[in-house]
Design goal:
about 35% strand; mainly beta; two-stranded antiparallel sheet
Length: about 80
């Protein structure tokens, strides 16, 4: 499965972040069982980004940083075990 979230991140007006939320699928545990990574398709700008995932109602989330290369479009594979 997949999710498409697209746009341009700008530092103007105290920006520099993007956020997406969706209703939680009660069957997500079964669907995601065995997943080894999350994939991020991005055109890099040479900066490091942080992907944060969590569940509504929980006081914690999981994060992983990834560095991009300026003007390079690629798929970043973020291993599940790399989230802290």
């Amino acid at each position: 499965g997949g999710l498409v979230f697209s746009g341009t991140i700008s530092l103007e007006n105290n920006g520099g972040f993007a956020s997406a939320r969706s209703p939680q699928d009660p069957d997500i545990g079964r669907k995601a069982a065995g997943a080894k990574s999350l994939r991020v398709h991005a055109l890099g700008d040479g900066k490091t980004y942080l992907l944060k995932v969590g569940t509504e109602g929980q006081p914690w989330s999981y994060v992983q940083r990834f560095s991009t290369e300026a003007a390079v479009k690629r798929i970043y594979e973020l291993p599940v075990e790399g989230f802290e």
